[in-house]
Amino acid sequence: MLNNIHKKIVSVLSWTLLAAGVLALFKRIFHGTAVCGKAKKTDVQGEDEGIFDVDKKVNINSADVHELATLPYVSLPVAQNIVNYRELNGSFSQKDELLNVKGIGPKLLGLIEEYICVE
After folding, report:
1. Which domain holds residue 19?
2. Distance between CA 41 and CA 57 in Å, rounded?
3. Which pTM does this prediction carry?
4. CA-CA distance, 83 to 88, in Å (whole number)?
5. Rounded to 5 degrees, what angle do the CA atoms 45, 18, 2 make?
6. What are residue 110's phi and psi, to 5 degrees?
7. Claim to verify: residue 88 and residue 61 sit in the same structural domain
């Protein structure tokens, strides 16, 4: 009897996880492409949680220090370096130019690439 209940619980949990995965996939497919714009305080929930709204990309050519700091893995000093570099050298024409900014290497660029845009 316990074995049958265990099997049913596992089956229900498996189907629930599968349905959640399918719904997430459909949302990603049919929701459209991410929009390049400004991050808002509502895009990050909590001060330390670091939950970022991936449907809104941060434009590295127009974002200020605080908006850039909302990006996952980007600290305030690195965000300030991005703004300083942009002020000295002009707008970024592609994401890879961030490699010229102090504090950003290939690994960090790979981590934040999906959250940024250049327009």
Report:
1. 1-32
2. 14
3. 0.60
4. 9
5. 110
6. -60, -35
7. yes
Distances (CA, A) of 9 to 1, 12, 18, 19: 13, 5, 14, 15
- Read off the pLDDT of residues 33-79 as tens digits, 9 standing for 90 and up: 456 765 554 444 444 445 555 567 999 999 999 999 999 999 999 99
Q: Determine the pLDDT at residue 32.
A: 47
SS (H, E, C) 46-84: CCCCCECCCCEEEECCCCCHHHHCCCCCCCHHHHHHHHH
Structure tokens at 48: 């330390």
Number of H helices, E strands in the chain: 4, 3
Same domain (yes/no): 27, 66: no
d(C-alpha 21, C-alpha 3), whole Å: 27
